[in-house]
Design a protein that fits this description.
The chain is α/β, with parallel strands linked by helices and about 450 residues long. It has helices spanning about 10-25, 45-50, 65-70, 130-140, 155-165, 185-200, 245-250, 295-310, 340-345, 395-405, 410-415, 430-445; strands at about 5-10, 30-35, 75, 80-85, 90-95, 95-100, 105, 110, 125, 145-150, 170-175, 200-205, 210-215, 220-225, 230, 235, 240-245, 260, 275, 280-285, 290-295, 325-330, 330-340, 350-360, 370-375, 385-390. The protein is globular. Bound molecules: flavin-adenine dinucleotide. Flavin-adenine dinucleotide (FAD) binds near residues 35, 46 and 278.
């Protein structure tokens, strides 16, 4: 009998897992359950379609349904799993009853946190996630003149930019003093805030959401905040991502402090033959060991591949993370690796810092863009522990590199003397990372 792996979830983690099982055991039966009508689309592209930078939603589909049939992966669409019985190794599936498994992967992803204020059931509150709903909402956006975005989370930042670029009067309501305040430093966000101003965004920082207010037809008409009432034809709710773990919790899988499923390096859960991956799990930060939940689609996909490979009888490991990240924000791109000053301070991690304002190409080459790099290093050893950047090009590549530099213990000295590509159209003579490391070393010498 072939091994049968059931996967709950058809997002990045679930599909990564399906491929992982097949790679480890091509003869395995692989069944994927998803509550959605589709798999294999990129939710990451949705804000860019709303912002009219990507012309249509069809481009976000990465593979058709036939691709999975051809690969021997049996995807059950619009099908919810309602229970998991770890003792008898069965799941309960709506419309199918009890379905047995040899190995199981939980990849149930995330939910946006409930804003927890009155009016949450009004029409006109948009939670950006499912592509079919996004297509419907995109038509609504055609006639919207005024919108409110709740919370300057990573998605909030993308949606503020998208709506403003679409010509909608966009108000941002956020309880913190600057956007992404829990992870990004204020000096990195300052140019973004300025560019939002140029795009007509009205930001309400230090402002707490108190209620969604409705009209007589039950549609949102405004949000009540600690600063007063803000009119809104629609509200995009971008609260933080929470692990969607109702099923896992009921089945008794051990959850960690973030609410994410606890997994070991093989992505095994506390229950035998059950693996988990993606936004429903927590993974330790490589330096601090602080558990992190709700990372990115690329983390979810890579974790899914490992979970799937092991569910298929393989033996792969997924290690602690150093979190390279990046996103366009207003007219800028922000990014980094590990953490910045705000997080280091909050966690009581001592650091020395070096900052440089560099450029992305030769200073005379058309289209040259500014690149600001900030490096954090451990006092004494001067090992890199984090980095943050704001610029207009080359941020992603630097973030990926700097995450590896943190992981492998590069020091400020290593970075200050690193070789770099100089070619007028693609790179400046002085690499901004080198300048930031050198500035840190110079300021330490002056102390
Ligand atoms: C608008 C948007 C923009 C994003 N932008 C980026 C980006 O720029 N970069 C990036 O790296 N990532 C991005 N992401 C990815 C994202 O933040 C997550 O990290 C990623 O979606 C996690 O994948 P996942 O498979 O763990 O979970 P999800 O994508 O949440 O998938 C969960 C799956 O589980 C299914 N499911 C849940 N419960 C059940 C059940 N009981 N029965 C059956 N099926 C169930 C759902 O139907 C779904 O298929 C974006 C996501 C969104 C929505």
């Amino acid at each position: 009998m072939p091994r049968k792996t059931v996967i709950i979830g058809g997002g990045a983690a679930g599909l990564g897992a399906a491929g992982g099982v097949k790679a480890a055991d091509p003869g395995a039966d692989v069944v994927v359950y998803t509550e959605y009508e589709d798999v294999a689309y990129s939710p990451c592209g949705i804000p860019y379609v709303h912002g009219k930078e990507i012309p249509d939603f069809e481009r976000l589909f990465l593979a058709g349904k036939q691709t999975y049939i051809d690969a021997g992966i049996d995807v059950h669409y619009s099908t919810a799993v309602t229970a998991l019985d770890t003792a008898h190794k069965v799941v309960t599936v709506v419309g199918e009853g009890q379905v047995s498994y040899d190995t199981l992967v939980v990849a149930t992803g995330f939910n946006y946190a409930d804003p927890g204020v009155p009016g949450g059931d009004l029409a006109g509150l948009y939670y950006v996630k499912n592509i079919r709903r996004a297509m419907e909402w995109d038509k609504v956006l055609d006639s919207v003149k005024k919108a409110v975005v709740v919370d300057a989370s990573p998605l909030g930042v993308e949606m503020v930019t998208a709506l403003a670029q679409r010509g909608i009067e966009t108000h941002l309501v956020d309880p913190y003093p600057w956007p992404l305040a829990e992870m990004v430093d204020p000096d990195i966000m300052a140019p973004v805030e300025e560019s939002w101003g140029e795009l007509g965004v009205v930001a309400h920082y230090n402002s707490t959401l108190e209620a969604f207010l409705g009209d007589h037809s039950g549609h949102v008409r405004a949000v009540q905040t600690s600063e007063g009432e803000l009119e809104a034809e629609i509200v995009v709710v971008c609260t933080h991502k929470e692990p969607n773990n109702t099923l896992a919790a009921k089945a008794g899988l051990k959850l960690g402090s973030t609410g994410g499923v606890i997994v070991d390096a093989r992505m095994s859960t506390s229950a035998s033959d059950i693996f988990a991956a993606g936004d429903c799990v927590e993974i330790p930060h490589g330096l601090t060991r602080v558990p992190l939940q709700g990372l990115t689609g690329s983390h979810a996909y890579a974790q899914g591949k490992v979970a799937g490979a092991n569910a298929g009888g393989g033996n792969r490991a997924y290690r602690a993370v150093y979190v390279p990240w990046g996103t366009p924000a207003g007219k800028w791109v922000i990014g980094g690796a590990s953490f910045g000053e705000t997080t280091a301070t909050a966690l009581g991690i001592p650091y020395v810092v070096g900052t440089a304002q560099g450029i992305s190409r030769a200073r005379y080459y058309p289209g040259v863009k500014p690149v600001k790099v900030k490096l954090l290093a451990e006092p004494g050893s001067l090992r890199l522990i984090g980095a943050q950047m704001v610029g207009q090009e080359g941020i992603k590549e630097r973030a990926d590199f700097l995450a590896m530099a943190v992981k492998f213990g590069f020091t400020l000295g290593d970075l200050a003397t690193m070789e770099n590509v100089y070619s007028p159209a693609i790179g400046a003579l002085n690499e901004p990372i080198v300048l930031a490391a050198q500035n840190a070393l110079d300021s330490l010498k002056r102390r």
